[in-house]
UniProtKB/TrEMBL annotation:
CDD domains: RecA-like_BCS1
Family: Belongs to the AAA ATPase family. BCS1 subfamily.
Listed name of the protein: AAA+ ATPase domain-containing protein
Phylogenetic placement of the source organism: Eukaryota, Viridiplantae, Streptophyta, Embryophyta, Tracheophyta
Reaction(s) catalysed by this chain's protein: ATP + H2O = ADP + phosphate + H(+)
SMART domains: AAA
Molecular-function annotations in GO: ATP binding; ATP hydrolysis activity
Co-factor(s): Mg(2+)
Positions with biased composition (Basic and acidic residues): 306-332
SUPFAM superfamilies: P-loop containing nucleoside triphosphate hydrolases (SSF52540)
All copies of domain AAA+ ATPase, residue ranges: 230-385
């Protein structure tokens, strides 16, 4: 009896599905949709399984969810599916597998078993999407699971699939460095070799920065819990050649983030700046190098206070709120525009982003940029100390120790030399560490001598010498 009911039901459903395909071919779209809806409702009533469909097209672009599901499943399908498609996406380092049409694979989440299927349907001229008339196929993934797991699938499994898929995508693609040309970002593959291993820093400072970055990258829940956008600001400051740009590259390599190198002088006004921000992706470092040079802070201050007598002009201007200084017309990038970019409501339109500003002159920055909470971490990169020198010696000369090290250590305590200049000496004679170290010692001795002969109140200018006496730079 039971068998009979099922077989009758089966033939009714088969008939309905057949009718639907006929309706699709010959009747208006509205009627097809209505019929499909009713059919789905009927199927839902008799089946204890639920199907979720994830379509490729989401209006005018490929759906992000579809892409994440595709990547997630491609990692699983290489072992589970019977027929696969092999491809190498444009932005990817590796070959990837994807399911072929009508292939199915199963997946397990905790103790729940689900089934995925991939479908590709040829579209007739009539049924092509108006958004994408060039596409002659409709592609979608179908997820099937038991009704009783509905809540867990929607609240935990699907978010897990999407996050995992996006992470896999990020890991397999080539990282990029973007720069802005007027209103748009253009990119090239980012393949900078700097890492925290090659960066010459005192061990404690390096450890602190690494821990900070690691904590940030794992703190999504924490940021949500405390009601803050998941972003962090770093201000790297110090003399030229101390490793600010190298550190940004090392950060990107450590976190596996893209870099957006924002050239503020190319941005017309605050509105363009906001558009550029909105166009950046998550998991990225947004960099403004030499912030003191990119933003004409002094000019803004002059604008605010029209006329002063000569005595007043000598005095340093009072720090003031950036909003007060904004020019009336939206004609250029202002400090408040930059602060809104990093801090304002728009800054939370993405997540997992670092904002890194660099400067050689922290004293020239507007206090509004420096106030606590704005740039979360201020990092001073300075002259090479012995700990940092040992990293350079290891990298450039492949040595851990040398009889000349004690003399170098003494000299470095008395003389300031940037890591860039130390590296120059170490590169001079490849394959002969002793003569490279001797060349460095000579330069350090020269600097020490200059300090001894320099007038007491005179300082050796940064521009004229690469190594200066401690405390006089
Ligand atoms: N701390 C460092 N560790 C390793 N290499 C360094 C370090 N600092 C500088 N260098 C070397 O010196 C070169 C210049 O360094 P970098 O461009 O990072 O300096 P910077 O602080 O950004 O200078 P600027 O202020 O002029 O932009 C790099 O190519 C790098 O090889
Ligand atoms: Mg630099």
């Amino acid at each position: 009896m039971k068998m009979e009911v099922w077989s009758n039901l089966g033939s009714i459903l088969a008939t309905l599905i057949f009718i639907r395909s006929v309706v699709r071919e010959y009747f208006p779209r509205e009627l097809c949709d209505l019929f499909s809806k009713s059919l789905r409702r009927l199927l839902g009533m008799v089946s204890s399984y639920i199907s979720v469909v994830i379509e490729e097209n989401d209006g005018m672009k490929v759906s992000e969810v579809y892409e994440a599901v595709q990547t997630y499943l491609s990692a699983r399908s290489s072992s589970a599916a019977e027929r696969l498609k092999l491809k190498k996406p444009k932005n990817s380092r590796d070959f990837t597998f994807s399911m072929d049409s009508n292939q199915r694979i199963s997946d397990k989440f905790e103790d729940i078993k689900v089934r995925w299927a991939f479908h590709s349907i040829e579209l007739s001229q009539k049924t092509r999407s108006p958004w994408n008339p060039g596409s002659d196929e409709k592609r979608y993934y179908e997820l099937k699971f038991h009704k009783k797991h509905k809540h867990k699938i929607f609240s935990e499994y699907l978010p897990h699939v999407i996050t995992e898929g996006k992470n896999l995508e990020l890991r397999s693609r080539n990282r990029k460095i973007y720069t802005n040309e007027y209103r748009y970002w253009t990119s090239v593959v980012f393949d900078h070799p700097a890492t925290f291993g090659t960066l010459a820093l005192e061990t404690e400072q390096k450890q602190e920065i690494l821990e900070d970055l690691e904590r940030f990258s794992k703190a999504e829940k924490y940021y949500r819990q405390v009601g803050r956008a998941w972003k962090r600001g770093y201000l790297l400051y110090g003399p030229p050649g101390t490793g600010k740009s190298s550190m940004i590259a090392a950060m990107a390599n450590f976190l596996d983030y893209d870099i957006y190198d924002l050239e503020l002088t190319q941005v017309k006004n605050n509105t363009e700046l906001r558009k550029l921000l909105v166009a950046t992706t998550n998991k990225s470092i947004i960099v403004i190098e030499d912030i003191d040079c990119s933003l004409d802070l002094s000019d803004r201050k002059k604008k605010k206070k029209p006329e002063k007598d000569s005595e007043e002009k000598e005095k340093p201007s009072e720090p003031s709120k950036p909003e007060e200084n904004e020019p009336k017309e939206d004609s250029k990038v202002t400090l408040s525009g930059v602060l809104n970019f990093t801090d304002g409501l728009w800054s939370c339109c993405g997540s997992e982003r670092l904002f890194v500003f660099t400067t050689n002159h922290i004293d020239r920055l507007d206090p509004a940029l420096l106030r606590s909470g704005r740039m979360d971490k201020h990092i001073l990169l300075t002259f090479c100390k012995f700990g940092a020198f040992k990293t350079l010696a290891r990298n450039y000369l492949s040595i851990e120790d040398h009889e000349l090290f004690p003399e170098i250590q003494d000299l470095m305590e008395a003389v300031e030399m940037t890591p860039a200049d130390v590296a120059e000496h170490l590169m001079k004679t490849s394959g002969n560490p002793t003569s490279a170290l001797q060349s460095l010692i000579e330069a350090l001795r020269d600097a020490k001598e200059r300090r001894a002969t320099a007038p007491l109140n005179g300082s050796i200018s940064e521009e004229n010498t690469s190594a200066t006496a401690q405390g006089e730079a």
